Each structure stands twice: as C-alpha cells, then as structure tokens.
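Lab notebook page, bench 4
Experiment: in silico fold of construct C2
Operator: M.H.
Input chain length: 100 residues
Purpose: comparison with the prior construct
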Amino acid sequence: MQGERYEEFPNGLHVSLSYRQQKTGTDMENVSENVSENLCPNQQKMINAIKDNKKITYIELSKLIGIAPTNVARNIKKLVESKKLTRVGPAKGGHWKVTD
C-alpha cells in the first residue's frame, strides 16, 4: 500500500497509515426507512394490536405482549419518533393511528 510508514523504537513501533479519500459524515438518506422496517418483535406486536384496537391502553398492551408498562411506553415513544405511530386526540379519549 502506498503512504504507509513505520519506525522502530526501543520500546515499541510507530506506524503511519494513509488513505486515498477521507469519508466524513453519514449517508442519512435512507436511515428512517431502514429504522422503521427493522422493528423489534415487541414493537411489531404493538403495531398489530393497535391496528386491531386503536384505543388500546398501555396496560392492555403490557398484558398482551408480556412486558412491563414502562417498556410499552418506551417502545411507543420509539414508534412515534420513527413516525410509525401517531396519537390522535388527548391521552384520555384519544386513539392511536398506525402510519405506513
């Protein structure tokens, strides 16, 4: 390879490597698509349950899926952030809407 150098010292070795093109940043174009397609099993169960009952509660989801209500809340938050789920109306009396 080109541009590689090394120097030996009594207590070690110093190696310098070079590269042709520095890559900076991240390709953010398809990140949200990839994230929403890769739902964990619990999130997929939540989506399916909400499709069946748009007024389902955290407690009902917790019992149905078999996880703690705090974990339901955490997963719901992730689904809302990834735009897979939205809340329509207030916390009491509103309902969930699954967005595709």
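Observations: Helices lie at 31-37, 41-52, 58-65, 69-81. The mean pLDDT is 82.
Next step: discuss at group meeting.
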